[in-house]
Every structure is written in structure tokens, then in C-alpha cells.
From TrEMBL, chains A, B:
It is an enzyme of class 3 (hydrolase). The keyword Protease applies. The lineage of its organism: Bacteria, Bacillati, Actinomycetota, Actinomycetes, Kitasatosporales. Its EC number is 3.4.13.-. This is Dipeptidase. It comes from the Bacteria. It comes from Streptomyces dubilierae. NCBIfam families: PRK07907.1, PRK08201.1, PRK09104.1. Keywords: Dipeptidase, Hydrolase, Metal-binding, Protease.
Length: 467, 467
């Protein structure tokens, strides 16, 4: 296996470190808060800034793509090797809201380096992790003497991720031909910890459902009628209670259809991670673990589907009491899905199950929304192996595997483009995503640069198209 | 059995009918809405008006009793027969809120006779039913030639019933000696229907409980943590679902301890009532009956204890979705109790049961309030038999038996005074309590007058104290 000498890459990065951080700081000064309408112009400015910077980096194509909401940025840098694979990098340039008075030690939009950390809103989520690709591709070219990357490189950096990506799928569908890729690399996740570099291999999907239950035509007196008519709040509760069996397994017939079970190797790899349950519980702000029998906590959040109540309501919730049988009740459910599960199939299973649970005299309405498919890249996928090798070179340590329990718009790329989704992120749990004093570790940020400097060559070498 | 000729009573009532209705209309013009602070002066005026009217009726004692809220009226007319029993009549002079724009065909506080009905807020609940006692005692005296009633007659007419009687128990405790009675007669209920005169023999008690369940210290992300920590909304739902077994019987161990079961005779008497389930469901605004196996609808609402959810809430209840595991959830429960059940015992049983249901990692807090004991007068009680005979004479029909599913402050009289509680009411379901166009049927109102005109003599004859 021929490799560019790693020292060449490292030297290049050290030489360009200061300018890279200055540029990133300039971008972080733009408060591109997509959830706040008064920052709409800032989000547009952030997109324009990034497109210009990508042009400056060398991308022959860098465009701002409008949506009915905030714009995305698309850039493309074809390889000079027609057999090279095509890689699409996904990230986002919008950020969560932030205000000094939320508990920040410095202005969230005035980036500040303290010690070996860069503090700013978006430092880790996600501007920092988007930006390491710019210096990464330059280091790749410099070290290899190429004038174009070893892979066909595309970037799609959306502007509404922190607002739920309402227009993302339509955007991807609209531009599906230009976005076509052999693999998607998502740089919007993290690693296990500073000391344990990891690659995420999948994320859970999501199906959301609101169930409304209607009983009497109006609230009625619980003295006059209580004990003789069905109560929709009771029906809602019984529905929720019936979601799980005594092993905390989802009890909806058909829910587990198609689930890709964990292999012994995957379970062993999860078990290698230095997991501290007490520490995990502190992060979860919770006081006990509880979940499906026969699985560890990490297996439960990464590789098992769930049914979770996000909200429940019905009847009188104010101070004191009101002796009524309420007219209606409501439950908001979300189902996290794992590889092999189909949101449409889950919806059918939930509908059939709910209809059977609800007693006579109660009408039940289900509304589904927000379906996101799960992603899972097999451990032996050649692109995943390239990521692991590149990261291993950059970090000088064994790279382990994680998954992501949440769900994200990357699944739309997988669905529309039919490409596997890989995750390359260098953020760590202490970075404080969505919290005050968000930061990125500068050493890790530069390891991200270095990883991509190795990655494109490795990918092109091991995963070429047949000529 | 010597009886006053009924025709004498009826003639007296006819002669005084017009003045009686004029007086009642005058009282109904006072908008004594206890729940609305801007009507506080009206409630006081209503009390003053009633005390003056009772004095005019002949009660040697008629007083306004202040409370920290709205005042009650107390009146007393001792018998000239020292061996006579003492009867305490309970009613209330405050009314529900009412406004023309709620759907009234006439001003709710400008009483109007249309056809054979008197329309006004309070016509049936409860001024009309308090007021029939004034003409009733005069008719009793006129027909028997007495100058004092055949029983020691006391009236306690409270001013906060429509606001939950917050000061009633303290008032009764404060004046327990003066209120001492052999029986309490509550005139604040109704009959089965215009065609079916009935006497209510009991009402259910009530224990109210709010359960708060605490999980994570704050709402947490259902993707990152879902499936691996306990969810307090799920715990709340499972608690509610565990309230009842598959026969809709309350599944809390010890809940039924002491319950006085229905006798075969009581069940047969309930079954004699012309019960139309379709009509009952329309009144209940409900679409099916459902309740404890082995009992009819009337048995379920009158004679069986219940556990009912009045409110449930937790997590996100707004539009759209929010993928969280909520930090907390809440359930408001009310338990209707029947004779033989003790609210304190029920509270202990519920606490022990709830603690056992809640999983590790969820903290559970129970707050009990609003305990009201159940009342039940045995069918063979001499005072009840007097009420049935007096009502039978007035209505000229067989008097049947009902119970009341609700709970009321009369239970405080039973508890503090140690006297059985009887119910004498002439209102019918169509009277529209708490609704627009509340009315009282004039024929029934005068039957109420006539019943009390017979009742005091009958009671004194059949239930004298030993000399």
C-alpha cells in the first residue's frame, strides 16, 4: 500500500493552521441561527461566505442553493481519475440559538481561543466539522502533488438542520442527479471521547405518531357517570402501558419485523468501549437504566428500536382538582428504528395495534409524521474501512466503532441517492452541543483535517470503479 | 295512623301559591354566584334575604352565619313536643354562574314563568328546593292546627356549595352543638323523572389524589437516551393502566375493604326503575357503557366505588413533535367511595400500591385532598320510611329508590353530627342544573311543599324519642 508520508501532511497542516483558524473564526462570527427569523439574513450571509471560501479553496463549482427556507451550499471538485469513486460530504452551516446570558463565559458569536479550545456557537456543531474539509483537501493535494482530489468530491452543507431540515429532502430530490454519489460522509457527529477515536457506523430512524382519543362529547361529571362509561385518559394510558411487555420489549405485533440483529462481533466491539454507566447516567440526567432485557445500555440506544412517549395529556391539569371524565386525551409517541425496519410498515403495525387496544365508545385518531429511515454501514464496507484507516493514521490509535441513537437528515441522502452513509466526526461529548460554552478541541479539529487528507487517497486506492 | 286530611294541605298550598312564587322570584333575582368575587355582596344579600324570610315564615331563630368566605343561614323552630325528633334540613343559597349569552332564552336572574315552569338560575339548584320548606312548614301548621312544628326543625343553608364548600366542615364543627339532629334531610338532589317519584338513599364519597412522577432532571433527547432510561410519562400511564383489572374492577389491593355490597332487594329496586340505556348515554354524552363486570349501569354509578382519571399530563403537548423523554408527568385521580369505605384506608392502599408500581429511577409523590365520606341510609330506617310515605301521599304514586353517584358536603353533616342523611328533592334531570335555561317544574315544586307538609307529622308519629 503506497502512502503519502504522513509527515508531509502534518507539516502542511501546521503551516496553514493559523490562517485556517482565522477563517473559521470569521465564519463563526456570523450568527446563522436558522430557528430565529431575525437571523434569516445571517444564515444567507453564512451560505455566501462558505461558497466564496470553497471557491477560494479550489472547488471549481461552489453554489448557494435556495430553498423555501434557508439556503444550502453545494460544491463540487471532480477527480482527474474517471474511475475514482464519488463522495458527498454532508454538514450544515446553521447553528443553534445562543445568548451570552444563557451562561456563556464569552460572546457566543465572538470566537475565543482559551487554552487548546475554540469557544463559539457552531465551533463543533457544525461549522468546525464542515470546515476541516477545506484544509483537508488542500493538504491531500499538497502531499500527493495532485491538482484535483483522488475522489470526485462533493459537499452539501445545509442551512436548516437546527430547524428540523424542513426542506432538505425536497432539495436532495430536486438535485438528485448532481448529488449522485457512491458514498455519503456525514461530518456532523462525534467520537466516543478525546482518548478513544471512533467511527459511527449508523444512526437510528424515526417514526412519529400522535394519537388522539375521544370519549364523551364534552367533559362529564365523574360522580354522575364515573364507573359506567369509558374514560379516554384511561384509554390513552392503557395504550401507552401496552406499548411494552414485561421485558421492556415493544409489544406491537410486527414492530420488530426485519430488524437487523447485532452480530456477536458488533456486540464485542461495543463492549470494548470504556463505558462507565454512572458517568452515562449523569449525562442522561437520569437515575436508573431501564430497557429491553438482554441488551446493554449502549446496545439499547444504538442498535435497538424503541417506542417512547414524548408527551401525554388529557383532562384537567391545572392546580387543585376537577372531578371530570375528560372528553379527550392525547399521546405523542416516537419510535426509533434500526436497520431493516421500514417506517411505513411500522406505521401499519401501530395503526392495527392501536385500533385493537381501544375500547368501545372511544374513538381513536392516529397521525404519523417525521418518518426518517435508519442508516447502517456494514463493518466490512470498503469505504468504512478507508475511514477507519485514515482516522487511525491521524490519531495513531485503534479506531473503535459506535453508532448514533438519534436520527438525522443524512437518512434522506441514503434514501434518495441510494448511497451508504458513513460518519466522520471529531467532536466529543464535552463540546456542549446546543449548550452554553460550546467549544471544539483544536487538537481534534486538526486531526479531522489530517484524517480527510489521508481519506481521499485511501478511498480511491481501495474502492475504484471498474474501468 | 291519624292523618291530617290531605285536602286541607292542598287547599292551603293553592291559596298561598302565588305569594310563594312571588317570594321565590324575588330571591332568584339576587345573583348569588359564590364562584365570582364580584358577586360576593349578592351572596351576602341572598343570605340576609333568606334569614328575613325565615323569620317572616315563623322561625323564632334565623341567623346569618359568617364564614371566611360566603355566609350561611341558620334557622331553628323547636317543637312544642320535647320527645319529638330533631331534623336538620340542608340546602344552599348560592348559585352557579350564568349569563344570557351562554344560551339562555331569558335573563337568568329575571325569573320568568313560561307554561308550567319557572326559569331562572337557582330555580332548581337550589333556591327552589330550599324554598319549598317555607310554605311546607306553614301548611303543616295550618293543617294540624299546631303553633310549632311536630319536629324540632333546623335549617342550615350554606353559601359556598357551588364553590366546593371550602368552609362548610369547619362551620359545622364550630356549631356542632346547635346543629345536633337525629336526622339530616338534604334538599339538593332530584328524582328519577317527572313520572317516577323517588327518594335518594345515599351518595358516594370521594378521595382525590394527584400523583407526580419524576424521571430525568430535565427533558432529555429521546434519540440519545431513548430505550435505556425510564420515562416518567410511561410510568404514569402504566400506573393508570394498573388501576383496573380486565373486569374493570379497581385492582388496588385493599381498595374494596369494607364495601357494603348491594342486597338482592336493593338490586331489585334499582331494576324496577324505567332505565333506558340509550337515553342515559345521551345524558352522559357518551358512546358506550363500560364498567365493573357483574353490575348494571345504575349499580355502577350509584353503588360501586371507582377509580377515575380526571387529568393526565407530561412532556410536550403542543403542536408538532418534540423528541424528548420528559422530566416529569402527572396524574389526577379521583376515587368514588361507597358505604363501608374509609377515605384514610383508601389513601393508605393507594400509596402502598403506587410505590410498588413505579420503576427504579422514577420518583413518585402522592398528594391527597378532598376526602368526603359516603352516605347510605338503610331502606328500613324509620326516617326514610316517613319520607317515602309523605312523598307517596303528595305524589299519589309508588315512591322508588335511587342513589346519587356524586359526593357532597352533606357527608360532613353525617360525620360531624353523627346523624343519618336523607334526601328529599323534587328536581328532575331536565331541570338543567349548571346549564342555560335552568328551570323548575311548578307542579313538582308544589309537591315538594306538600311532601314536607306531611313529613314532619309522620316523622314525629313514627320516630319519637322515648319519654
Amino acid at each position: 500500500m503506497s502512502q503519502t508520508p504522513d509527515s508531509v501532511v502534518r507539516t502542511y497542516i501546521q503551516q496553514h493552521r493559523a490562517a485556517f483558524l482565522d477563517d473559521l473564526a470569521e465564519w463563526l462570527r456570523i450568527p446563522s441561527v436558522s430557528a430565529q427569523p431575525d437571523h434569516a439574513a445571517d444564515v444567507r450571509r453564512s451560505a455566501d461566505w462558505l461558497a466564496a471560501k470553497l471557491t477560494e479553496t479550489g472547488f471549481p463549482t461552489a453554489e448557494v442553493w435556495p430553498t423555501p427556507g434557508a439556503p444550502a451550499v453545494y460544491a463540487e471538485w471532480p477527480s482527474d481519475d474517471p474511475q475514482a469513486p464519488t463522495v458527498l460530504v454532508y454538514g450544515h452551516h446553521d447553528v443553534q440559538p445562543a445568548a451570552r446570558e444563557d451562561g456563556w463565559d464569552s460572546d457566543p458569536f465572538a470566537p475565543e481561543i482559551r487554552g487548546n479550545r475554540l469557544y463559539a456557537r457552531g465551533a463543533a456543531d457544525d461549522k468546525g466539522q464542515v470546515f476541516f474539509h477545506t484544509l483537508g483537501v488542500r493538504a491531500h493535494l499538497a502531499a500527493t502533488g495532485r491538482t484535483a482530489p483522488a475522489v470526485h468530491l462533493k459537499l452539501l452543507i445545509e442551512g436548516e438542520e437546527e430547524s428540523g431540515s424542513p426542506h432538505f429532502r425536497a432539495l436532495v430530490e430536486q438535485h438528485a442527479e448532481r448529488l449522485a454519489a457512491d458514498a455519503v460522509i456525514v461530518s456532523d457527529t462525534g467520537m466516543w471521547s478525546e482518548d478513544t477515536p471512533t467511527v459511527c457506523t449508523g444512526m437510528r430512524g424515526l417514526a412519529e405518531c400522535e394519537i388522539r382519543l375521544y370519549g364523551p362529547d364534552q367533559d362529564i361529571h365523574s360522580g354522575s357517570f364515573g364507573g359506567a362509561v369509558p374514560n379516554p385518559a384511561t384509554a390513552a394510558a392503557r395504550l401507552v402501558a401496552a406499548l411494552h411487555d414485561e421485558h421492556a420489549r415493544v409489544a406491537i405485533p410486527g414492530f420488530y419485523d426485519g430488524v437487523v440483529e447485532l452480530t456477536d462481533r458488533e456486540r464485542a466491539l461495543f463492549a470494548e468501549l470504556p463505558f462507565d454507566e454512572e458517568q452515562w447516567l449523569r449525562t442522561a440526567r437520569s437515575h436508573a437504566t431501564r430497557g429491553e432485557s438482554g441488551f446493554t445500555t449502549l446496545e439499547r440506544v444504538w442498535a435497538r428500536p424503541t417506542a417512547e412517549v414524548n408527551g401525554i395529556g388529557g383532562g384537567y391539569q391545572g392546580p387543585g382538582s376537577k372531578t371530570i371524565i375528560p372528553a379527550s386525551a392525547m399521546v405523542k409517541l416516537s419510535f426509533r428504528l434500526v436497520a431493516g425496519q421500514d417506517p411505513d410498515h411500522v406505521e401499519k403495525a401501530v395503526r392495527a395495534w392501536a385500533e385493537r387496544q381501544v375500547p368501545a365508545g372511544i374513538r381513536c385518531e392516529l397521525t404519523f409524521s417525521g418518518a426518517t429511515r435508519p442508516c447502517l454501514t456494514p463493518l466490512d464496507h470498503p469505504a468504512l474501512q478507508s475511514v477507519v484507516r485514515a482516522m487511525g493514521r491521524a490519531f495513531g490509535e485503534t479506531v473503535r466503532f459506535t453508532r448514533e441513537g438519534g436520527s438525522g437528515p443524512a437518512a434522506d441522502l441514503q434514501d434518495v441517492l441510494g448511497a451508504p452513509v458513513l460518519f466522520l466526526g471529531i467532536s466529543v461529548p464535552s463540546d456542549g452541543w446546543h449548550a452554553p460554552n460550546e467549544k471544539v478541541e483544536l487538537d481534534l479539529l486538526l486531526k479531522g483535517v489530517e484524517t480527510t487528507a489521508y481519506l481521499w487517497g485511501d478511498l480511491a486506492e481501495h474502492w475504484r470503479h471498474a474501468p
